[in-house]
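Morning!

As promised:
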Amino acid sequence: MSSIIHRFGKVQSTNTLAMEMAIDGAEHAEVVLATEQLAGKGRSGRSWSSPYGGLYLSIILRPTLSMDELASLSPWSALALAKAIRKVCRLDPKVSWPNDVMILDKKVAGILLESSFSGGLLEYCVIGMGINSNLKIENLPSEVRDLSTTLLEQTKKPVDNEKLLNVLLVEFKQMYATLVNGESQALKEELANICSTLGRRVKVQTSSGTMKAKAVDITNLGELVVEDDNGAKHTITTGECIHLGEETE
Ligand code: BTN
């Protein structure tokens, strides 16, 4: 897996740029990096605030994966990101399923997977990662401050974004190799160990509806297994997942 890194200053969105570069023939594992985004995209149509100081990148992939394995790239990428943050910043990040990286229950990084298909076949996909690294909490919009944190705020010292990028790309490559070698059981075990969703009562919103249940396991495809109040188990492939406190149940 080569790592050509295309470096930019201000862009609209590294994911949008990476999708355009993929159309123009960019190769598997090329990376698009920016110091700032003017129209950073988050999941479910939300925006991703991307001021200078954060780390914003998108990895172009031309995977030979099944559709199920493709979806699993989101949680496995969150795992790789959490491991990189742990190594570089000596913090203890957790993954809130499916793909939010959290420190002390506040979001420090997010992942956006976008894919392009032709005639039912996957052509390429882009994994976008946004990390609140060298940001003060005041640099983020007031509406997300209460639910967010930054690496700077947690470590109380500047983060070496270049080192974080390099460690992240190494972790990502190892994760990807594990996946394509059919060893996702190992990823599942690692993720289960740092997944803050497991054991919690959650509200999951999928295309087929909303359900309140207890999160009990992760599958080898990175899916969430929940148990409803009747003891029936359900496997959630993708969707939004909110941790419920006692008072909101
Ligand atoms: C989320 O948690 O909502 C996902 C956030 C993903 C943000 C990253 S920043 C780099 C890449 N480019 C984008 O426009 N979005 C992703």
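The chain has a mean pLDDT of 95.

Hope this helps with the figure draft.
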